[in-house]
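Hi support team,

I'm filing this because I wasn't sure whether my run with iron/sulfur cluster finished correctly. The job status page said complete, but I'd like someone to confirm that the output block is well-formed before I use it downstream. Pasting the exact inputs I used:
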Amino acid sequence: MKLTSTQHLVLTPFFHRLAAVFSEMDQAYQRASYHYHFHCSGCDENCCLTHFFHHTHLEYFYVLEGIGKTDPYLSTSLYKRARDVHRKSVEAMKQGKGVRLMCPLNQDGLCVIYNHRPMICRMHGIPHELNAPGRKTAYGPGCKAFDIQCGSKPYIPFDRTPFYASMANLENEMKQHLGITEKFKKTIAQMLVE
Ligand code: SF4
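And here is everything the job wrote out:
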């Protein structure tokens, strides 16, 4: 699936705003990493093996935009890889097994759409908190590599709430603009095959 030129035109202002939100996320993540002295240099629990679901149409369109910037030979192979990953994921789930398959957009350990990668790919790894209105603060853990390197260090507040709120607002605005009413929940592989 490729964005048409009309879709691209309509979506471009939203992409710019999404890139600004992602930039703030990246800076907050880097600040927290710096304070912990946490360095991600790959590990056997590579987060690109995680069966992540993504929850916004806007991230989906941005992933397509990123793939559209790769050369045609590479993008053809990404879609083929996505079909394989999706088929294996469906088989594993039918058998009640957990899914741990490399994301089809990871090539030789690198994300081929790095600047366009979705939110969870940017935020994963560092302990965090969420402060939903009227609820107690919910804390989430770091990844295994974080625990090994920094697990004994005291928690440094890393609040995902403003980023989730910005993403939700932007998504709602874009859906209204485009007349989209459905919710979104897909893995990267599903995004490329469905
Ligand atoms: S989109 Fe990129 S960073 Fe995210 S899981 Fe796939 S390869 Fe990894």
